[in-house]
């Protein structure tokens, strides 16, 4: 059955959700208070980079529209998805002002039964809070649902349409049936649970994946001291069906808008319930230390060869996105620049966003990967964009001043690099 759906928020989650629901045949209104963003969308311009998203929005434009009029968007549609930002505060707790504002707008403009679906990552108990808040101002019938997202930037469209599971936190039959109907054409397990469990599933999933990353990075550091090779170790570990191969790639750590925020958020939730989640604190500490270790490797080489210039390939926190939020690459570039080291950077997509954040006199933004290598003493690969592993290193060798490659994502094969006359150092590589 075609449903009429409103989505509050047009960021990565909101816009991807809107596009995919339109693809599924539903009528969707995306609403956002950012007038410039809405204006771009109405012109057919997509304000974020996400593979496949622009094509989906263009192909199914008959099922999706955009507005800044939240009153009409709420009054016209039965199902309201909330997909607003819930950023971390300095103490790690979740800033709920955008979510609370969305609830206020919904209450103010509801005239009939509505299913209020939360897509934002929020503290456990937020659904209960929302229900009580709505009851204070609205006497009619409504339902609150938790429907956490599990979208990976760069793969968000695929993750939405081909998910491992769809989690629905619903506590009344009508809302459950509506949600199951919305997702009926997606062939994936649908797990219906209580709202608090749904809210916790999102945090627990990301915390577990972050733990795998920090664990394999610690094993990589041990490999460097013992002579093992992390690629061989990870392959052997990942063949165990109880563990699996995913998220066992050693590197400079995790970043982005989800893992760091959700780790901090879960720690804050734990603290508020007087639960000592020491393991998770260690995961975060290991991740930060991994980036600091990489900076020390670069500085050690520069000191040894009396060099002063680093070429950095990659600024986004992962390939196939322009997102630099909590990017390990940006953290590393920041540390290098603050130490007075000259940095030449290039990223295929994230340059414009990086220019607004990396405000140093000793940084140069280059137009190509090869241009960034000119006169460099160390080449540091920080994001595993495919073009970096495919580049002609013979051309690189003509441009650099010294032949040092530090591979923060283990993209290259050490022996092949060494045959070309480079000094190579990866993460946990023999």
Can you characterise this structure?
The protein is built from 18 helices and 14 strands. The chain is an alpha/beta fold. Helix 9 (195-226) packs across helix 11 (259-272). The protein is elongated and about 75 Å long. The mean pLDDT is 96.
Query: What is the total tally of β strands?
Result: 14
- The CATH H-level homologous superfamily of the largest domain: NAD(P)-binding Rossmann-like Domain
Count of structural domains: 2
CATH architecture classification of the largest domain: 3-Layer(aba) Sandwich
Distance between the termini: 57 Å
Q: Can you tell me the CATH topology of the largest domain?
A: Rossmann fold
State the share of residues found in helices, binned by percent. Answer: 40-55%
Q: Shape from CA axes? A: elongated
Average pLDDT taken over every residue: 96
Strand content: 5-15%
The biggest beta sheet is recorded as:
6 strands, parallel
Category from helices, strands and their pairing: alpha/beta
Arrangement of strands in the largest sheet: 3-2-1-4-5-6
Q: Which CATH class of the largest domain applies here?
A: Alpha Beta
* H/I helix tally: 18
Kindly provide the radius of gyration, computed on alpha-carbon positions and rounded to a whole number of angstroms. Answer: 23 Å
Q: What low-confidence regions span 5 or more consecutive residues with pLDDT below 50?
A: none
